[in-house]
UniProtKB/TrEMBL annotation:
Function: Involved in inositol deacylation of GPI-anchored proteins which plays important roles in the quality control and ER-associated degradation of GPI-anchored proteins.
Segments traversing the membrane: 7-25
Enzyme class: hydrolase
GO cellular component, one term: endoplasmic reticulum membrane
Domain GPI inositol-deacylase PGAP1-like alpha/beta, residue spans: 79-158, 257-395
The entry's keywords: Endoplasmic reticulum, Hydrolase, Membrane, Protein transport, Transmembrane, Transmembrane helix, Transport
Name of the protein in question: GPI inositol-deacylase
Record GO biological process: endoplasmic reticulum to Golgi vesicle-mediated transport; GPI anchor metabolic process; protein transport
Record EC number: 3.1.-.-
Length: 421
């Protein structure tokens, strides 16, 4: 009799567990994010790395994002924008940078826009599954620290409006259409040629409704002001904007040489971004002055989503312990902004996307004029969030120096305004 009771209880518990799992997976809101589109052909310009780096990290790479005519200046090594580095997450692709980068580029072309623009960089981490294996995250952190230093070196070699070609190699990936069917930034992180199959970050002709259509169909939304097509900005030139000083955005305007890089990390890329301060190599460590601002999207900050090896746990313990210990000391001036996807992100719940060491923690549902939930992949290309993030990036730049503002209070006020209030 006792055995039968135990069997019944086990059956009831299994049923309840199944119902809870079904509810967790299926009881989500429809994805109401608008897609982000490119209006000109995207280019991913590979950045040359030292031979020893290529030997140690043969599967990794650093790329600069260019679009249309502006890509010509990047191929020549003319980097004169404010550097931003995008770090993809678990199984992610470096091409996921295109949504933020394209909208930021379009905003810089507006007639009443600022006299500065951004250079968006990204790292190719070979689609590695960093959420499942600790040593992968350690290796990615080591490479990202190298990438940060290399990006800053570009402005010494051929950047700041010069016509030199230092630091830029040939890109085998320029102009891929990235036509993913329905989900923008391929879940699998795979890159395939062809006509853009679902889930793959593929090159091709970019079907309608996909993030990164090659031909930029009229009516698709990409710029901050909702204009369609390749804006001529009054002078008939597509892709160029005359500034108040008569120079163009695309590579001739002198700017102050940057001394810092803004990091934006998706998923596990956010943890890698936070970990750069803890990694030491022959060149020392990345200092808070080199990376003063980190924005994370759908990043599990508090603990791993799943722990399959001790090294993954150790990685989290090391990073979180360092941040807790140094938050009021070495990291006191670093601004950390975390954004969660909300209810639709069944991979990273909101409780894990927040962290006590963050200055601002929000979700897509709380972002003004976004007010919706985004799944784990959609948060990268969700147009409502992309627009808010890009506006915040432009507003935290000190127009007197064309650098990230050193006023921490101002930065917090800006992100609170665009992402919270």
């Amino acid at each position: 009799m006792a055995g039968e009771v135990k069997l019944v209880l086990c059956g009831v518990l299994c049923c309840l567990l199944s119902i809870g799992l079904y509810h967790h997976v299926n009881n989500i809101n429809n994805n109401k994010c608008d897609m982000t589109y490119m209006f000109q052909r995207p280019h991913y310009i590979e950045i040359d790395l030292p031979p020893e780096v290529k030997d140690n990290f043969p599967q990794y790479g650093v790329y600069a994002y260019g679009e249309g005519e502006y890509s010509i200046h990047l191929y020549k090594g003319q980097f004169n924008g404010i550097p931003v580095l995008f770090i993809p997450g678990n199984g992610g692709s470096h091409k996921q940078v295109r949504s933020l980068a394209s909208v930021a580029y379009r905003k810089s072309l507006e007639d009443d826009g600022p006299d500065f623009h951004f250079n968006f960089f990204t790292v190719d981490i070979n689609g590695e599954l960093g959420a499942l294996y600790g040593p992968v995250l350690q290796r990615q952190t080591a490479f990202v620290t190298i990438a940060i230093r290399r990006i800053l070196q570009l402005y010494d070699e051929g950047g700041v409006g010069n016509s030199g070609s230092g630091g830029v190699g040939n890109s085998g990936n320029d102009g891929n259409g990235d036509g993913n069917s329905g989900n923008g930034d391929g879940n699998s992180g795979n890159e395939s040629s062809g006509n853009g199959n679902s889930g793959n970050d593929g090159s091709g002709d970019g079907n309608s409704g996909n993030d990164g259509s090659d031909n930029g169909n009229s009516g698709n939304e990409s710029s901050d002001n909702g204009n369609s097509g390749s804006e001529s900005n009054g002078n008939g030139n597509s892709g160029n904007k005359s500034n108040r000083n008569g120079n163009t955005v695309n590579g001739t305007r002198p700017v102050v040489k940057p001394d810092s890089v803004i990091l934006i990390g998706h998923s596990m890329g956010g943890m890698v971004g936070r970990a750069v301060y803890t990694h030491r190599d022959n060149n020392g460590t990345i200092t808070p002055t080199m990376v003063p601002l980190i924005i994370t999207q759908a990043t599990p900050h508090t603990r791993p989503v799943i722990v399959l090896d001790q090294q993954l746990n150790d990685f989290y313990d090391k990073v979180n312990a360092y941040w807790i210990m140094e938050r009021d000391y070495d990291l006191k001036d670093v601004v950390l902004v975390t954004v969660g996807g909300g209810r639709n992100d069944i991979q990273v719940p909101t409780t894990r996307a927040n962290t006590p060491v963050a200055d601002i923690s929000t979700t897509t549902a709380d972002v003004p004029y976004c007010w919706l939930t985004a799944d784990h992949q959609a948060i990268v290309w969700c147009r409502q969030l992309v627009l808010a993030t890009v506006r915040a990036l432009f507003d935290v730049i000190d127009t007197n120096t064309n650098k990230l503002s050193t006023n921490r209070t101002r930065i917090l006020d800006v992100f609170n305004y665009h992402l919270v209030k």
